[in-house]
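ingest -> validate -> predict -> emit
validate: passed (alphabet ok, no gaps, 116 aa)
predict: started
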Amino acid sequence: QVQLVESGGGLVQPGGSLRLSCAASGTIFSIYAMGWYRQAPGKQRELVATIIRSGGSTNYADSVKGRFTISRDNGKKTVNLQMNSLKPEDTAVYYCYVNYQGSIYWGQGTQVTISS
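emit:
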């Protein structure tokens, strides 16, 4: 079983920055992929960014490319999302996820609100 704990959400003005972190715990040997989804009110959950263990390749939603950066620490089993130049349309609940042994595990979600 994998447990995920997220931190770092909050309220920030447009153009500001936030850093989200997610720590995985449990009996984990090797995580294939980690990343973040988000869900805005009335919208479907969408992929924001993901990072693969082997080689550390990354993938981003077009809407966040150049503004968000995903990173992971395999030793600490954490994944981070640095979010810069935030826009009101980035407002959503952000969910950490882990792909481990073919199963997807989710964090509880952290609210990110961009507003002046």
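The mean pLDDT is 93.
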